[in-house]
Structures are given as C-alpha cells and as structure tokens.
Design a protein that fits this description.
216 residues, alpha+beta, M1 Pyruvate Kinase, Domain 3, eight-stranded mixed beta sheet, 6 helices, 24% helix
C-alpha cells in the first residue's frame, strides 16, 4: 500500500546566502491537521519564484521516505526530518522506478496525476548550506516527482494513495531522468523519448527539450 507519511508546507522566507538575500519556499514543516489540496498548491504553502516553481504541473512535490535512510548516511551532520528536501508529501511505496509519467492516483477525495521529476536548483544547496548538494541530489537518482491536481480535496498524513490508472506509455520517473542526462541516445532511447512526447500530463517545457534532443 502506498500512502502519505507526512504533509509539509511552508511560506517563502528571505535567507542570506553567498552575500545576498534570497527568497525561497524550500523550507517545509509537517502539519498535523488535514488541509485542502488545491489546483495550484496546498493551503499554507507557497513558492517564491513562480517562473520555475509551482504552477499547475508542480502543484505538489513528492519525496519517498525510503530515501531518507540513504541521505542520513550521506549527510550524517544533519538531523533530517520530514520535509527537509522541500517535499509537500513525504510518501511511502512510490519509488521512481515504479511511478510513471501520466499515472493517476486518488488521495481521499482528491485526484492527482504524475507530471515530471524534480530537477534540483541552487536553493536545495541553500537548504543544506552546501553548493555541492545540487549535484549530489541529481547523481543519487532519488529525484522525487511532481503532481498536478485534477480534483481538489482534503489530505492528511496516513492517507492511502490509490492507483486509478497507469499511463500506457510506461515511462518511469527514473527513466526520464536517465534520458535527460544521457550524452547520446541509442535506438531504444529514441523510442522511449517518442513515447514520452505522447504523454498529455508531461509539461510542454520538457517536451521542447526532448524534441530538440531528437533533432540533434
């Protein structure tokens, strides 16, 4: 069974980093009560830079509780708690190898669809006070993924995440990350990219990137 372990939200705050003030919404804290999941975000949660964060295709960021064991070994100097990677949902049972773009789930009365993996930005480095964290996160292949909200509803810790449908193209989150960082494409990779371009839930910005790769 897949479920939500923790629901985490946070409002943008100004932090001082590398000699300048930066506004970031990456600092999330667990909430105890059930809250409303809306089309663009959760109640009590906001993003600082809407040009690259938030929006319809990034309404909710999910990160697996299973990854915390890895990071506790990699980052022993940190006392890691739920929400530390900026995730809204700390989940159980939804790993990148099994979750595919376009997969649809229900969470209580809400319904969501998987849209894309997370590509870390420098603000993850701010969260962990380390510029190296961005590369370490991407190299770990533990990206997490974003959801779009198709039906609003209340959610809370402990809610089961029920599969409604699997996308027929079967492009997993781990596969799309592999294709994104691959230097060269084999025939099988080209076929996978073409399947990816057929997924309605996959954002146009990503599709544009992969169309350019195919044109190279």
């Amino acid at each position: 069974m897949s479920k939500i372990i923790s629901v985490n939200v946070g409002l943008p705050r100004d932090v001082f980093w590398r000699g300048q003030s930066v506004s970031t919404g990456i600092f999330k804290e667990p909430v105890k009560n059930r809250i409303l999941l809306r089309k663009l975000d959760l109640d009590g949660d906001r993003q600082a830079d809407l040009a690259v964060h938030g929006g319809e295709y990034k309404a909710v960021y999910c990160y697996a509780i299973e990854h915390y064991g890895y990071w506790k070994k990699e980052l022993p100097e940190y006392d890691l708690t739920m929400g530390n990677f900026g995730e809204n949902f700390t989940t159980e049972g939804l790993l990148e190898e099994a979750v595919c773009l376009g997969d649809r789930f229900s969470i209580d009365s809400a319904e969501v669809v998987v849209t894309q993996p997370r590509l870390p930005c420098y603000k993850l480095g701010i969260r962990f006070q380390s510029d190296a964290m961005v590369k370490r996160f991407l190299a770990s292949k533990r990206s997490g993924f974003y959801l779009a909200v198709t039906t609003e509803g209340e959610v809370g810790a402990g809610d089961e995440i029920k599969e409604l449908s699997r996308d027929p193209n079967h492009v997993s989150i781990s596969e799309i990350i592999r294709l994104y960082v691959a230097k060269k494409y084999r025939d099988v990779d080209i076929e996978a990219v073409r399947r990816t371009l057929q997924i309605a839930a996959f954002p146009e910005s990503w599709k544009k990137h992969f169309r350019a790769r195919l044109a190279d």
